[in-house]
């Protein structure tokens, strides 16, 4: 039957074998522990005042990641941070859409957008990194969301999925092969950053106990499923070498 449609049976078998091997390789890699060396970077996502208790868009327990991240950062030769950096009146703010409320969905030119409370506005205390977050090891800060018409969850590509932040090029020029990702929030900015890191070709790990989630209508479970589908490994701090 396969030959009747111009399909070579040996090609089918070879294709199935290759697919099985690729699936097995992904599964095996998901069980590996990352190596921390000169080709591994720690990416700290959006540990800012507005995402911590008392902030405009507080993530439950967001401040709890700070001591964990401070301890982790000492193990890495390369540390990068991302920072939400919105202009006032950003298009993702519910206040920019009369009659709309925070956490409603609206259609944007680049797709569906959650409307957020005003947060991480440039130059405000809410946009600052947590004061107890040790920024001493940080070699680069990637600011995102500063274009008024486009939201940006990922540290790599903005929400239109075409505008790069420059992080991919920065990491490649420094010879990075592996990304270890921590921060806020697991189901949004950490999730998108991790998926884009994997798509860019980096071995990617998210440290579960160094992140916290918003969990908006099941968004956390959905995020972990999406990350797993995109070859992102879910680990704990105990899985990292000391």
CATH class of the largest domain: Alpha Beta
Instruction: Write down how many β-strands occur, each being a DSSP E stretch of 2 or more residues.
Output: 8
Strand content: 15-25%
How much helicity do the residues have? 25-40%
What structural class results from the helix and strand content?
Answer: alpha/beta
Give the overall shape: globular
CATH topology-level name of the largest domain = Rossmann fold
**Strands ordered across the widest β-sheet:** 5-2-1-6-7-8
Question: What is the terminal separation in angstroms?
Answer: 57 Å
The main sheet comes to: 6 strands, parallel
Low-confidence stretches at least 5 residues in length (pLDDT < 50)?
Answer: 1-28
Count of helical stretches: 5
* Rounded average pLDDT: 89
- Relevant CATH superfamily of the largest domain: Isochorismatase-like
As a whole number of angstroms, the C-alpha radius of gyration is 20 Å
Report the order of strands and helices.
Answer: HEHEEEEHEHEHE
Number of domains as seen in the coordinates:
2
CATH architecture of the largest domain: 3-Layer(aba) Sandwich
What report would you give on this structure?
This protein is of the alpha/beta class and 242 residues long. It folds into 2 domains: 1-31; 36-239, 3-Layer(aba) Sandwich (Rossmann fold), CATH 3.40.50. Helices cover 26% and strands 19% of the residues. The protein contains 5 helices and 8 strands, in the order αβαββββαβαβαβ. The chain has helices at 9-31, 65-73, 167-173, 186-199, 219-229; strands at residues 40-45, 78-84, 105-108, 111-114, 140-144, 178-184, 203-212, 232-235. Strands 5-2-1-6-7-8 form a 6-stranded parallel beta sheet. The N and C termini lie far apart (57 Å).
